[in-house]
Amino acid sequence: MKKSWYSVKRLDLRDSMWDSLADRKRKGIRFCMLRKILLRCGSYLNEVDLSFVPYRLHCNAVIVIGKLCHYLKVINITGVCISRFTIRSFVNSCHNIRKLSVGEVTRLCDIDLKMLFEMNPKLQHFEAYRTPITGRCLLHLPTDRIEEVVLDSCQYLEEYFALEAIVRLQGMKAFTINRCKCISGNFFRFLGTQCKNLETLKICHIPSTSYFQSTDTFYITQLSNLKALTVSENNVITDEFLFSLLTTCHNLTYLDISRCSGISNHGMTAITTVPSLEVLIMNDVPTVTKVHLSEASNFKRIECRNSKFMDSVIINLIKFSPQLRVLDLSESPSITNRTLEEAARITASRTNNITLEIFVDGTSVDLRTFNNVSPFLQIVTFPLVL
User: Fold this and answer.
1) Neighbour tally for 223: CB within 10 Å
2) InterPro entries this protein is in (predicted)?
3) What's the pLDDT tens digit per position in 305-331?
4) DSSP 3-state of 168
5) Domain 1-132 belongs to what architecture?
C-alpha cells in the first residue's frame, strides 16, 4: 500500500475520483476524508492544483494541505478564496516551491507572501489572480531565480511597488499585467529599459483613465529577445507602434492585438516584415479589413473572430500561408462558401500534408450547399476553445 501512495505526486480536485468522496447534499468534499488521504500521500505530493474546484471545500482544507504536504514544488490555489492563515501554513511547511499561483485572499496579504517568498529561494514563477496585494511583497521575490511574474486583476496593486519590482527582477523571461488599475505608460518604459531578457510579455486591458504619453508604448520595441507579445484591449496600441515593433523584434513568433481600436489596415502592412511570425490573434478588430501576407508564409494559426474581412482577403491569406493549421473566422458575417471552396482547392495541392482547420461558426457559410472535398481541409462549426 505504501508503494502505491508513493506514486501519487499530484492533487487535482477535477479528477473524477473525487466524485465518490463528495457530499452530494452539501455539494462539498468531506473534510475528514480529504485529511485521511493527505495523511497517507501528502508527503509524496509535489503538486497541488486547485485552479478549478467543482466542490465546496472546508475552510481549513487548504491549511491542512499546507501542513501535510511538505515537499510541494507547484502550488495553484487560484480557484479558492483563502485567508492569511492559509498562506502561513505554507510558510511553516513548504520550502521548496518552484511555482506559486495565488487567488483571492480575505485581506491584504503582502506580509504573508513576503514571508513565503523568503522561505522559498528557488521560486521561479509567481502568479497573483484577484489577490489583494499592494505589490510590496514583490520586492522580496528571489531576484536571481524568478523567471515569470503574472499580475492579473489585482485592484490594490500600487504602481510604485510594481515598478520597483520590475527594476529588481531584470532577469525575468515572462511578465503579465492584466486588468490592474495602476497600469500606466511607466510600465512600458520600465519593462523596455530594465528587462532586456523578456521573451514573453502581456500587457492587457489598460484602464481608459491611465496616464500615457504617445511614445510610451515604443519602449517595449527595444526588447530584441521578445518572442510572444499580447497587448489586447488597449486603445494606446497604434499603427506606428506596430511598425516599430515588427521592424526591431525579429524573433517575434506570437502577436495578439485583439480589441485594439487604434490599429488600421495601414498598420497591418507591417506584418509582412516579420517572416518569423507564426501566430496572429486579431479578434474584434473591426478597423482592419485587409491583411496582405504575400511575404509572410510561416503562419500556423490565425484568429480573426468578429472581423470585417471579405472572402477575397481570407482566400489570399490561405493561398500564401501553406503552414497554416488553424484559421478562426467565427462571427465574421461576410465569410461565405466561396472561402471554403477556394480553401478546398488550395489545400488539396498541399505537399506538406498539413491539415487546415477553419472555424466558421456565426459566418454566412451554408454547409448544405458545400460539396468540395480536400484531404487537408477540416471545417469546424463550433467555437474555437484553447
Assistant:
1) 23
2) Leu-rich_rpt_Cys-con_subtyp, LRR_dom_sf
3) 999 999 999 999 999 999 999 999 999
4) helix
5) Alpha-Beta Horseshoe (3.80)
Q: Using alpha carbons, select from 230, 290, 228 the residue that is nearest to residue 260.
A: 230
For the question of whether the overall pTM of this predicted structure is more than 0.90, the answer is yes
pLDDT tens-digit map of 333-348: 999 999 999 999 999 9
Specify whether the CB–CB gap between 358 and 325 falls below 8 A.
no
Integer Cα distance of 165 and 138 in angstroms: 6
Give domain limits for the chain.
1-132, 289-386
* Residue appearing with cell numbers 505504501: 2
Distance CA 82, CA 88 (A): 11
Beta strands in the chain (DSSP E): 10-12, 22-23, 28-29, 47-49, 74-77, 99-102, 125-129, 148-152, 174-178, 200-204, 228-230, 254-256, 279-281, 301-303, 326-328, 356-359, 377-380
CA distance 305 to 302: 10
